[in-house]
Amino acid sequence: MLTVTDLNKTYSSRRGDFAAVDGMSFDVAEGELFSIVGPSGAGKTTLLRCIAGLDTPTSGTVTFDGVTVDGPPREFAVVFQDDARSLLPWVTVRTNVELPLVKDGSTAAEREVRVTRALEEVGLADAAHKKPSQLSGGMQQRVAIARAIAYRPKVLIMDEPFASVDAQTRADLEDLLLRVRAETGTTIVFVTHDVDESIYLSDRVAVVTRSPSRVAEIVDVPLPQPRDQIATKSLPEFAALRAQVFARIRDMVRDAA
Fold this sequence. Notes:
Layout: E1 2-13, E2 16-28, E3 33-37, H1 44-51, E4 59-64, E5 67-68, E6 76-79, H2 93-98, H3 108-121, H4 137-151, E7 155-159, H5 167-184, E8 187-191, H6 195-201, E9 204-208, E10 215-220, H7 236-256
Parallel strand pairs: 3-8, 3-9, 6-7, 7-8
Antiparallel strand pairs: 1-2, 1-4, 4-5, 9-10
Helix pairs in contact: 3-4, 6-7
């Protein structure tokens, strides 16, 4: 469904050129949950912005269903780490979640059902009529996640979306993401710094290098579905995959140092 081919992104400034991504290539299958991990400053957010059509590659291509991405596709939804800032502060939580649905052809009744269910799934059913300013930062981020879920995109792109929530909520949202993928078949591209999270969620994990970012290794994650926060993470196979990915990242950090 999604193909990144020899993607390069270079930024120019008075101090010279800076290559953030260099020769990045990989495929993401329809319905796959594909995670990207790597050291800090590895250009992961830049890569996601190019995939989502929010930034233009210096060279190379991103294709979705065989069509080159040259702007944000309607079939995509994006959740960034600080996506709470994208909420409209003068309207309610419910209106913020409903906003992207207004132009997708759904009726008011359909939108009501989708918004209500999305807020229930992120644990904010009681906050529907509040303004974003009345919620904590973590709760605002959950509103942004609910908005993306309610939209029902074909491709969901997420850049450390759970970083600002507490540990229990993070686990709950991870399981929610797996349920959404199982129920809807949504293709998900997920960036995280948490190696355990990448293994728990993913079908495959791409380990990328420091800038200029390249794919160092793509790790298959053949853990059984459905997954469970305790049972899955207790498996010897989980520990082995975690060690494999963590060791690759650690080695890249040491080499850079």
